[in-house]
Design a protein that fits this description.
Radius of gyration: 31 Å
CATH class of the largest domain: Mainly Beta
Number of strands: 24
CATH topology of the largest domain: OB fold (Dihydrolipoamide Acetyltransferase, E2P)
Distance between the termini: 59 Å
Shape: flat
Number of domains: 3
């Protein structure tokens, strides 16, 4: 009932895509409006999920009326979460670009989106990677080059473009500008935005190498030193043109520092003599401030550890050393997890049934010899070939949660006491990797993701058994689940590193 009514056919409405696609023409008042020359389009840039409508329905509509077709259709990919999953509110992994723009320069965000993934493929978005690109490329590579260039000009050339010919070793500058023009032109025509930007970054790297190799600060002869400075300034000016599509604000600041307006790339001189001698050069602020990143020894909050009860156990039909264990981690059937476990060397099915166990719930589902495993039953070794289940210990106070924490309070066990600091200093969720903190960046902790066996192996190095209690950085591991929490214990396991099986 919703839609544009079909003339002469009461009760019928236009198919939404038939109606929507015509907006490409009506929106520009084709064929007689002021924008009529925009059709036929050189290219339709669309999302990959609507390719069929633009390559089947739309061409049929156009051909039926004799209207020319667009020259090409290019489908772009989607932005996914860091683990490759679709962003979804139910997963809790949605990234708000407006929130990111409150924390990072727009240039940084734009640069990252172009550089991180091939145009047309999906982009796994990671804030960690965005910071890495900002610091490594924009601050250290481009920003440092610009700042060194204008500073050298101030110190050695009275802050003006020197009136000497550029230093052109082997008849070329720091990079081949003709080649860069041709390569980026071709790649942009092919929608290879990432590769085009890579070529520009490589030219920037070559300029940095040129500056380091020529070392003008060590050259005694003034004209020779000035020639190197002139060449660096010329290279920076040229590079600003090629960086402008991805970092327009920074490019404008470079042109301002060099007191020279931009020009068409085709008009740039390959002899690196685009700047007018005597033009005043401004040092000003650095182009990109490095984000103050600090790595600390707290692992990332990625692991969801739950207490569950073993409801049933059966031998793996294809593997003599494995069990298929069904663990209930909640109160409903939907909270049942089937996991494949390698504790068959020590336990029988009867031994395991009814046991309260500790489970990593956010493991990436894997197929082990024909049986799907949806978690990891935590166990360690008491001796070679002898498994010990990690289990919930005595109850303690705590808020309801579904994640493990490291509680800096006192943990007691039958074998002794593990002392910690005041509970207010508790370290949140145990996990893998390193925590990165940046100024103005309250939390770079990754959301809970589907962990791999590699992640779990890395996790193990942060834990050990002390007096039968599993500890993290000397503090007892606590699972906050239900009305209170509990420590994780490994009865019978010797003191030492935790060997997760």
């Amino acid at each position: 009932s919703w839609g544009v009514e079909v003339p002469g056919a009461p009760g019928h409405v236009m198919y939404v895509w038939f109606d929507a696609l015509t907006n490409y023409l009506s929106g520009m008042d084709w064929p007689d409006g002021a924008n009529k020359d925009f059709w036929p389009a050189n290219v339709h840039v669309i999302g990959k999920d609507i390719v069929w409508f633009h390559t089947v329905i739309w061409p049929c509509m156009l051909m039926s009326t004799g209207i020319p077709l667009p020259e090409s259709v290019f489908a772009h990919g989607f932005v996914h979460a860091a683990d490759g999953r679709k962003m979804s509110k139910s997963f809790g992994n949605v990234v708000d670009p407006n929130h990111l723009l409150d924390k990072y320069p727009a240039d940084t965000f734009r640069f990252f989106l172009v550089r991180e993934a091939k145009y047309g493929t999906d982009l796994p978005f990671s804030e960690d990677a965005l910071i890495d690109h900002h610091n490594a490329v924009l601050a250290d590579t481009l920003g440092n080059l610009v700042h060194r260039g204008v500073n050298l000009c101030k110190k050695n050339c009275d802050g003006k473009v020197p009136a000497v010919a550029p230093d052109m070793p082997s008849g070329a500058g720091p990079f081949d500008l003709d080649e860069l023009k041709e390569e980026t032109d071709r790649l942009m025509d092919e929608f290879c935005l990432q590769e085009a930007l890579d070529a520009v970054v490589e030219a920037c790297n070559k300029t940095n190498k040129y500056l380091q190799d020529r070392a003008p600060w060590a050259i005694k002869e003034a004209d020779e030193r000035a020639a190197v400075v002139r060449t660096v300034l010329e290279a920076v000016y040229v590079l600003a043109h090629f960086f402008e599509p991805t970092i327009p604000q920074a490019a404008t600041r470079i042109f301002d520092k060099l007191n020279t307006p931009k020009k068409a790339i085709k008009d740039l001189s390959c002899a690196f003599d685009n700047l007018s001698p005597g033009t005043a050069v401004a040092v000003g602020e650095v182009l990109f401030e490095k984000l103050k990143v600090r790595t600390v020894d707290i692992p990332l909050q990625k692991v969801e550890i739950r207490v569950g009860e073993v409801k049933s156990v059966k031998p793996h039909p294809q593997a003599d050393k494995l069990f298929v264990v069904n663990v209930q981690i909640g109160e409903t059937d939907s909270d049942m997890r089937s996991v494949v476990s390698g504790v068959r060397d020590t336990f029988t099915a009867a031994d395991l049934t009814g046991q309260r166990v500790v489970l990593i719930c956010n493991m990436k589902p894997v197929n082990l010899r024909g049986e799907q495993s949806l978690g990891l039953l935590l166990a360690t070794e008491s001796s070679p070939g002898k498994s010990v289940l990690l289990q919930p210990g005595h109850p303690i106070g705590g808020d309801r949660d579904t994640a493990a924490t490291s509680d800096n309070s006192t943990a007691e066990s039958a074998n002794g006491t593990v002392k910690g600091k005041d509970k207010s200093d508790s370290v949140p969720h145990v996990a893998v990797g390193s925590l990165v903190e940046a100024e103005g960046y309250p939390s770079i902790l990754k959301g809970r993701e589907n962990l791999t066996k590699k992640d779990v192996d890395a996790l193990a190095q942060h834990f050990k058994v002390l007096h039968g209690v599993v500890v993290f950085q000397e503090f007892p591991l606590v699972i906050n689940q239900g009305p209170g929490g509990c420590h994780v214990v490994a009865p019978g396991a010797p003191d030492g590193p935790l060997k997760i099986k």
